[in-house]
Design goal:
Layout (H helix, E strand, L loop, with lengths): L2 E5 L2 E4 L4 E8 L6 E8 L6 E7 L5 E3 L7 E6 L4 E6 L8 E9 L14 E6 L1
Parallel strand pairs: 2-10
Antiparallel strand pairs: 1-3, 3-8, 4-5, 4-9, 5-6, 7-8, 9-10
Length: about 120
């Protein structure tokens, strides 16, 4: 069973940084793409970015390009989301999910409990 769990959220001031972690289990990590998603209050869930351990592909939403970086540790089965220059509009619950193959992720699986990121102005 594909399982992922995001952690590392918190309260940060605008302009600050935060690193989220995603622990993966239940699947062959090397064959999957891992994506970060977020859902702000009153809004639909949206994709933030993706990294593929399968072919090395990556992509990012336009709203976070140049500020967020996704990395993967295939030894630890962990994926990280480094968030810099945070803005109040980045406030959301962040989730990670997976799909076999390359980015982008079309049918994400394994959403766990998300982690809340709050950016104060």
């Amino acid at each position: 069973e594909v399982q992922l769990q995001a952690s590392g959220g918190g309260l940060v001031q605008a302009g600050g940084s935060l690193r989220l972690s995603c622990a993966a289990s239940g699947f062959t990590f090397d064959d999957y793409a891992i994506g970060w998603f977020r859902q702000a209050p009153g809004k639909e869930r949206e994709g933030v970015g993706c990294i593929s351990n399968y072919d090395g592909s990556r992509n990012y939403a336009d709203s976070v390009k140049g500020r967020f970086t996704i990395s993967s540790d295939i030894v630890k089965n962990m994926v990280y989301l480094q968030m810099n220059s945070l803005k109040p509009e980045d406030t959301a619950v962040y989730y990670c999910a997976a799909e076999g193959g390359a980015c982008p992720i079309l049918y994400p699986r394994g959403y766990g409990q998300g982690t809340l990121v709050t950016v104060s102005s």
